[in-house]
Amino acid sequence: MAFYTDSLPDFPWDALVPARDRAAQYPHGVCDLTIGTPVDDTPGIVRDALAEASNAHGYPAVVGTGELRAAIADWMARQRGITSPVAILPTIGSKEMVGLLPSLMGFGPSSRIGFPNVAYPTYDVGARLAGAQPVLIDTDADPATWPTDLDLLWLNSPGNPNGHVLGRGQLRAIVAWAREHGVVVASDECYAELCWQGSESPSIIADDVCDGDASGLLMVYSLSKQSNMAGYRAAWLAGDPQIITPMIELRKHLGFMMPGPVQRAMAVALADGDHVAAQREIYHARRTKLLGALDAAGLTNDPDSVAGLYLWARAQGASSWDIVNACAELGIVVAPGTFYGEAGDGYVRMSLTAPDSAIDAACERLARLPEVLKRISD
């Protein structure tokens, strides 16, 4: 019997076990800068809203409550410049939509699904799960250089892992290219509230990007990062009603429903910008500390890494695994760039979601990285 998992790549994090074991031997504890799981508290107003809605004796609506849908629409207008008519579908986190979108849209073996050549692995998994052909795209390049026989193209801006941002002009060019060639574009924008160095990250369905016409366009957003709600699985899909409406019907049959208390908590979180601003400052402070430690470590952050929750760093002449193994000897665990595609070789991803104590310890230890890296290289 063949299972869908037979076509999937090996789970990349398993390859990191030896480095984790080596880091665990460091006498002063491990600084884990790998997975971007929030460690700071979920805002009190969100937890209170969840508790107040806990008497959830009935089935929730797949399309979300009127309160939640209004909160999402208001937030998109206020924060993302999206005021044109779009369909909205609450999702059980954004990862399930990244992984299931090609299947929900009916793509199969004859379909070609594009995604960034340096990317979160679930885009690839979603294509393979549908039986479609995964196609690596340099989404930073001119769309005129891209293959035109794609059925669906994933964008990720700000990018995970590299923090690259597609500007308004780039997005407009992508929309024009997609409409010329009949390609649906889905944009994963989950880090858009975490921009640094004066950058901003526009939405693919912003009025001034798509000219108020979301046909053939989708965006995915999540409150996991900006509101520390990863455990709530609070996200949504928005965009072309002709694409989303059939998915709503399918999800009714499958019982894909965001729990009612989560819907209430999500609506409250979307209406409050203060906790987002406060969390952004926490991440900015951690980022500033890590950036300050890179020079002494002989590492350089990608100059285009201007948003999101990660540094995308490299050392001259070193492979990703050289850096991973050298960091492990200092009790620091980082993710090799190769987890995100061959184009990521030479880089490592460092997360800003570690506790302050771990960030501070990592910064102190990184000063010894050049000597360890040299010894490993020799």
Q: SSE layout and pairings?
A:
Elements: H1 17-24, E1 31-32, H2 44-52, H3 66-80, E2 87-92, H4 95-104, E3 112-116, H5 122-129, E4 133-137, E5 152-156, H6 168-181, E6 184-188, H7 207-210, E7 217-222, E8 234-239, H8 241-254, H9 260-271, H10 274-297, E9 300-301, E10 310-314, H11 320-329, E11 332-333, E12 335-336, E13 347-351, H12 356-366, H13 369-377
Shape: globular
Strand content: 5-15%
Helical fraction equals 25-40%
Biggest sheet record: 7 strands, mixed
Distance between the termini: 48 Å
Which structural class best describes the helix and strand composition? alpha/beta
- Low-confidence parts, pLDDT < 50 over ≥5 residues? none
Written as H for each helix and E for each strand, in order along the chain, the element string is HEHHEHEHEEHEHEEHHHEEHEEEHH
Figure out the total of helices. 13
Compute the CA-based radius of gyration: 21 Å
- What's the β-strand tally? 13
Look at the structure and give the mean pLDDT.
94
Strand order of the largest sheet: 2-8-7-6-5-3-4
Could you characterize the architecture of this molecule?
- It is a single chain.
- Helix 2 (44-52) runs antiparallel to helix 9 (260-271) and helix 11 crosses helix 13.
- The chain is of the alpha/beta class.
- It is 39% helix and 15% strand.
- A 7-stranded mixed beta sheet has the order 2-8-7-6-5-3-4, with helices on both faces. The protein has a 4-stranded antiparallel beta sheet with strand order 9-10-13-12, covered by helices on one side.
- The model has no long low-confidence stretch (mean pLDDT 94).
- The longest helix has 24 residues, at 274-297.
